[in-house]
Every structure is written in structure tokens, then in C-alpha cells.
């Protein structure tokens, strides 16, 4: 059998190394191990059970739950039967779930636990094509008697019964798979409208692995900690596909809240964090070092500049002198290696960031610590990554060079366009959007129009600027990228979110800032500064002064005409449940600009404060609203 599909690759791994560890999952404080043989039996029984329930080749199955072994076994079992998996975010609300189930024409749904099952039961009469809901965590569900529900173990029992009657059925079904079969339908964030279903084939997924591994190989001894949302392309592309393609070991955290602790225990060989997680990690390190012992603080402050010097030599492709090598070696022993160990990065070969452009300050910081962090550029439509930095060839301004087999060109309008084997099949049930975003050249090659502005420099590096539609012009004619400014602001451990504002009718850039409540509260306590709520803390003059320092540092890196002139510390966080952000925490700029229009206007008409009605949550758990004022600061 030729390996054209993910289940075929999985079967190859199970046959070649049946007794090697395939999966680990932490339960009740203990890491449980499962061999490839055990994993094979689980996938086989689930797949046959789904066939017994009536699953047809070509069906679409929705899945919602935290990363764990049942999710993986269900994922591979559905694909083994020729179905496509439709991942959903665990924090999706019922209306979002309803849209995806109905739009994708899903016939079955996998739901992890009582919380997710309750969402689906609420929708039962509104998702008519959904035949059964399969759940795998039955805590709290012993009294649920709805025939619409069936447990994961019950499905597997049906599968074992079918397997006894047709012992070759599993291998036969797996062999029927073709590379161009749809493997995944991943729904986009929906920043500008309803989410679109990106159809990705098995050929897309395996090609993504082949091109990425030509740069950074994976091995069957590698450990991967699976924690990124399964609804996002990143976890299937960087976790499940390498697991099947190269035999990489999947490690599942005990709980979403224990991810960092479990990463420290496993010490993975490769690590993918979103840009936001890398940004948060910088803040965590900085705050912890301020609380460290006097000696550790001194060592950190002494050797971090040495780390920066060594990193700068690497970036400029210069060989460090003997003195710098010796100093860095000492700093590595005393500071950097222990710090990497605390972060779970002691065995890390390569680390990656994507989802948003990581600021140069963040890249430089991690390389100073000896963490080989590289930027990836891509999207769901290209099965994850299409460019990445290479070892020893990292440019702050770039997102790397195209992966092997991938081509990027620049349109006359400055748009990045991509061609290669990882480009999607199209958008499900949306020929108009597919035709808008895809084009075929004279040679019959399919190109994806990314909607991103950028260019290719003299070294072949791709320079990503922003979304074409997001590049803004001020009344002065100065162009600026809001995303770049926001990334720089979030290098401060005291800034959680930021939105840069400007337009052709306005002469300068302004910014709405969300403080990082935990870090700012910790700072305030050390300063002896009292506060009651998020709202109260955010409006303290001392906190404005603190953020002003971060603002000054960012402005030093910007052209004079694009510098931030005014800012406001917002009275509440941006909230995905209120449609202010997507589930992957991208800003919905139009929604924010409209909702906080009075604040935005005040930053340009000279006002020093704006009255707002703010929700508050008190320590006793009660909630309410208060009328307050937010201050506006001129930089």
C-alpha cells in the first residue's frame, strides 16, 4: 500500500514499531504510556464502530474537546473510514457551533464532556443532519438518557463486534483512501464575516510535513506536547501529522491549566507557541526575575547583555570572539541553561512562532537565552506554514524564506501570492470565495492570493508587512502597520493587548491599551499601591506612568510621523465572547472601533477623560456595573 493518507502513514508506523511508545497522557499525576500497537487497536475499534453506526466515506464529522488520546484516536479513526474532520474550539458558544455543524453538513459529532455535550443538546433541534453525538468523558453524565448520545467506549464495542465478523475491514477501508480525499475542514477566524471552511486534503497535510521536515527533521524519538487548539490548523499540522509521518511521540497534558508544568516535565524536542504565548513568556520571565534572589537577579542582569551580544553576532553571521564565547559559556551554565530547564526547553532543537508577527525584541530575547526561535509565515489555506527562518539565517524584519517546493510571488498591488502542494482544495460550499482567493496561471498552476502585503528582499527573505487591507495611511501621508506597533507594545510585561489607531482623516497614531492585570497588580503591590478592581488599577496615574515608559521605548523604533501621540488604558479586557476578538485572539478592529467610538474620538479632539459604563466582578463573585471615567494620555 502506498502511503497517500494520514491513516495509511499511521498504519505504517504501527506495523514498523508496534511496541514503541506512541502516546503519553498524564492522569492523576502519572504519565501513562501507550504503544503503537495499543493505539492501533483503539483507532481500529473506533473506526469500525463508526461504520457500524452508519458513517459513510466522504462524511464530515465535527469534533470539540481538549487535546487527549481519545481526540487523537477519534480523529484518525474518522479519517480511516474516509471521513473529514471538522475541528471546533472548546470555548465556542452554541451559535458558533450551530453554524459550523450546519455549514459543514456534519453527520456525527465528537464532544469530550458534559460541558460540550450540553451545548450540543441545546442545539439538537437546530442541527437536523447530526445523527449522533459521541462523548468520551462521562463525568457528570450518568443521568443522561438521550438516545442521541453514545459513549466512545460503546462505539468501540460496536467496532470490536464488527471486527470479529469482518477481520480485514479496517485495513481494507484504510487502503481505499486517496491523497486528494478531504482530510480536514478548518474554519477561518471570521474576522471580516462568517467563517469559511478550508478544505485540506491528505496530500496537503503530508506535503506540509515533507517540506517542513526537509528543513527541521523529526524523529520517532522526538517528544511533542499537544496543547494548541485542535480547531486551529497548527496542532494537526505540527502534532498529528508529524506523529503519523515520522513517528513523533504525542504527549497530552493532564489539564489545560497544567500545560506549562507538563512541558517542563516532558522537555520536548520541538515547540510551537503562538506569538501571544511567546510574548506572555517574556513577561513571565521578566516578572519572575524581579522576584528572584539577589544573587540570581545579579547573575541575570550581568549575563543577559552577554546573551544579547552573542545573539547579535549570530544574527549578523559573525563568529563571536573567544572572550565572548567563554563569557556566554559561563552565563549558559549559571543562568541560561537553568532558565531553559524551568521553561521546559532544555532539549529544544527548534522553536517556532506564528499566528502574528513576533517583534524583533522578542526574537532577540529568546536567542539570547539560547532558544532557537524561528518565525513561520502561513495560514490555514496553505496547511500551516509556507516560509520559515533557517538556522543561522534569521532576519528580524522577515518571516524566513519559502519552504522547499513552495513558491511566493508579489502581485502588482504588493500582495503575497503562494503556489505549491500545500495550497488548499478550496472553501467548502463557497465557490465565489474560492474563485476570489485562488487563481490559475497559464501553466495551470494554482496560486493563493493571501491578502497580505509584503515583498521579497535581495536574500530571498519574505518581508511580511500586514494585511493589505490593514496598512493604514495618516492624513500626513505616512503609512503605518498597526500590527507591528501592537507587537512592539506587547513586549512590555505590563501590556496584554493593544490596538493602534489611525486613518487618512487623522494626523497621528493613537493606541488603546489593555494592561496585563496579573503583572501590573504584582507591580502595584510591590509599590504599595492600593486598588480594588481592574478598572480602578488601570486608571491609576502611576500605572499610566508605567505604560508611558513602554510607549516611549516603542516610539524610539518608529518613524517620527508614525509614532504614538496619545493612548488610553482601557477599563476592561477585549473579549472573544463579545465578538471583540476571534477565538484565536485576533482583534476584530471594526467591532472595537465602533464599540469604543467615543474613546477613539476623544483621543483626537483633545479631551482628557471619557465617561464609560464598566462591568466589574467583585471578590465575592458578584457582578455589576459602575460608571467611571477613563483618562487619555498625551505622549
How are the SSEs placed, and which strands pair?
Blueprint: H1 6-16, E1 21-27, E2 30-35, H2 36-52, E3 60-64, H3 69-80, E4 84-88, H4 94-104, E5 108-111, H5 114-122, E6 132-135, E7 149-151, H6 152-165, H7 169-175, E8 182-187, E9 197-201, H8 202-213, E10 223-225, H9 234-246, E11 249-252, H10 259-266, E12 270-274, H11 275-291, H12 294-315, H13 322-342, E13 350-354, H14 360-368, E14 373-379, E15 384-388, E16 401-402, E17 407-410, E18 415-419, E19 426-427, H15 431-437, E20 438-440, E21 446-456, E22 462-467, E23 472-473, E24 479-480, H16 482-489, E25 495-501, E26 509-515, H17 517-527, H18 534-538, H19 541-556, E27 564-569, H20 589-595, H21 597-605, E28 609-617, E29 623-634
Parallel strand pairs: 1-11, 3-4, 3-5, 5-6, 6-7, 10-11, 12-13, 13-14, 26-27
Antiparallel strand pairs: 1-2, 8-9, 9-19, 14-15, 15-16, 17-18, 18-21, 20-21, 21-22, 23-24, 25-26, 27-29, 28-29
Helix pairs in contact: 1-2, 1-3, 1-9, 2-3, 2-6, 8-9, 12-13, 12-14
Q: Could you characterize what this model shows?
A:
There is one protein chain. This protein is an alpha/beta fold and 635 residues long. It has three domains: 6-207 and 227-264, Rossmann fold; 275-431, no CATH class; 471-634, ANL, C-terminal domain (GMP Synthetase, Chain A, domain 3, 2-Layer Sandwich). The protein contains 21 helices and 29 strands. Strands 4-3-5-6-7 form a five-stranded parallel sheet, with helices on both faces. A five-stranded mixed sheet has the order 12-13-14-15-16. A hairpin with a 5-residue loop joins strand 20 and strand 21 (446-456). Helix 1 packs across helix 3, helix 8 (202-213) packs across helix 9 and helix 12 (294-315) crosses helix 13. The protein is globular and about 75 Å long. The mean pLDDT is 92.
Amino acid at each position: 500500500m502506498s502511503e497517500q493518507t494520514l491513516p495509511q502513514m499511521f498504519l505504517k508506523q504501527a506495523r514498523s514499531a508496534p511496541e514503541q511508545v506512541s502516546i503519553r497522557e498524564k492522569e492523576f499525576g502519572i504519565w501513562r504510556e501507550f504503544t503503537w500497537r495499543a493505539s492501533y487497536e483503539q483507532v481500529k475499534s473506533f473506526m469500525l464502530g463508526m461504520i457500524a453506526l452508519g458513517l459513510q466515506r466522504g462524511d464530515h464529522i465535527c469534533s470539540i474537546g481538549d487535546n487527549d488520546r481519545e481526540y487523537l484516536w477519534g480523529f484518525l479513526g474518522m479519517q480511516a473510514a474516509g471521513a473529514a474532520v471538522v475541528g471546533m474550539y472548546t470555548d465556542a458558544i452554541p451559535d458558533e457551533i450551530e453554524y459550523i455543524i450546519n455549514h459543514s453538513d456534519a453527520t456525527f459529532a465528537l464532544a469530550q464532556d458534559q460541558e460540550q455535550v450540553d451545548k450540543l443538546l441545546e442545539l439538537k433541534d437546530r442541527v437536523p443532519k447530526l445523527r449522533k453525538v459521541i462523548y468520551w468523558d462521562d463525568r457528570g453524565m450518568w443521568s443522561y438518557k438521550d438516545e442521541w448520545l453514545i459513549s466512545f467506549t460503546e462505539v468501540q464495542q460496536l467496532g470490536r463486534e464488527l471486527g470479529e465478523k469482518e477481520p480485514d475491514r479496517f485495513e481494507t477501508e484504510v487502503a481505499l483512501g486517496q491523497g486528494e480525499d478531504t482530510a480536514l475542514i478548518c474554519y477561518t477566524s471570521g474576522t471580516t464575516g462568517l467563517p469559511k471552511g478550508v478544505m485540506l486534503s491528505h496530500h496537503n497535510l503530508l506535503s506540509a510535513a515533507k517540506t517542513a521536515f526537509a528543513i527541521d527533521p523529526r524523529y520517532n524519538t522526538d517528544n511533542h506536547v499537544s496543547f494548541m487548539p485542535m480547531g486551529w490548523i497548527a496542532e494537526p499540522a505540527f502534532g498529528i501529522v508529524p506523529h503519523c509521518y515520522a513517528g513523533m511521540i504525542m504527549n497530552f497534558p493532564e489539564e489545560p491549566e497544567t500545560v506549562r508544568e507538563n512541558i517542563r516535565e516532558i522537555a520536548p524536542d520541538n515547540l510551537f507557541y503562538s506569538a501571544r504565548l511567546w510574548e506572555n513568556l517574556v513577561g513571565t520571565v521578566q516578572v519572575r526575575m524581579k522576584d528572584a534572589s539577589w544573587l540570581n537577579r545579579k547573575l541575570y542582569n550581568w549575563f543577559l547583555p552577554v546573551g544579547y551580544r552573542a545573539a547579535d553576532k549570530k544574527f549578523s553571521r559573525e563568529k563571536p570572539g573567544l572572550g565572548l564565547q567563554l563569557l556566554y559559556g559561563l552565563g549558559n551554565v549559571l543562568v541560561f541553561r537553568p532558565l531553559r530547564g524551568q521553561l521546559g526547553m532544555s532539549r529544544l532543537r527548534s522553536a517556532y512562532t506564528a499566528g502574528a508577527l513576533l517583534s524583533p525584541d522578542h526574537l532577540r530575547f529568546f536567542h539570547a537565552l539560547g532558544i532557537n526561535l524561528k518565525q513561520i509565515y502561513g495560514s490555514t489555506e496553505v496547511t500551516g506554514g509556507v516560509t520559515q527562518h533557517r538556522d543561522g539565517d534569521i532576519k528580524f524584519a522577515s518571516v524566513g524564506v519559502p519552504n522547499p517546493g513552495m513558491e511566493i510571488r508579489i502581485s502588482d498591488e504588493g500582495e503575497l501570492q503562494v503556489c505549491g502542494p500545500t495550497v488548499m482544495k478550496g472553501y467548502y460550499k463557497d465557490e465565489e470565495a474560492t474563485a476570489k482567493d485562488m487563481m490559475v496561471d497559464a501553466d495551470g498552476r494554482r496560486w493563493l492570493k493571501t491578502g497580505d502585503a509584503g515583498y521579497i528582499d535581495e536574500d530571498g527573505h519574505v518581508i511580511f508587512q500586514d494585511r493589505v487591507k490593514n496598512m493604514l495611511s495618516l492624513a500626513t501621508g505616512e503609512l503605518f502597520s498597526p500590527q507591528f506597533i501592537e507587537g512592539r507594545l506587547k513586549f512590555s510585561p505590563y501590556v496584554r493587548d493593544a490596538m493602534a489607531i489611525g486613518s487618512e482623516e487623522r494626523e497621528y497614531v493613537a493606541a488603546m491599551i489593555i494592561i496585563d492585570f496579573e503583572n501590573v497588580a504584582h507591580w502595584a503591590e510591590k509599590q504599595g499601591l492600593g486598588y480594588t478592581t481592574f478598572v480602578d488599577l488601570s486608571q491609576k496615574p502611576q500605572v499610566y506612568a508605567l505604560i508611558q515608559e513602554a510607549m516611549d521605548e516603542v516610539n524610539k523604533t518608529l518613524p517620527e510621523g508614525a509614532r504614538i501621540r496619545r493612548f488610553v488604558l482601557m477599563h476592561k479586557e477585549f473579549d472573544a465572547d463579545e465578538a471583540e476578538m476571534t477565538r484565536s485572539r485576533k482583534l476584530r478592529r471594526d467591532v472595537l472601533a465602533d464599540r469604543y467610538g467615543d474613546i477613539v474620538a476623544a483621543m483626537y479632539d483633545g479631551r482628557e477623560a471619557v465617561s464609560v459604563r464598566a462591568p466589574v466582578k467583585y471578590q465575592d463573585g458578584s457582578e455589576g456595573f459602575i460608571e467611571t471615567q477613563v483618562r487619555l494620555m498625551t505622549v
